[in-house]
Amino acid sequence: MFELILNNERFAVGFDDLPRLIAERDDYRILAMSRTLVAGFSVIGQLAADGVVELVQLDLDTELDW
Question: What's the pTM?
Answer without folding.
Answer: 0.79
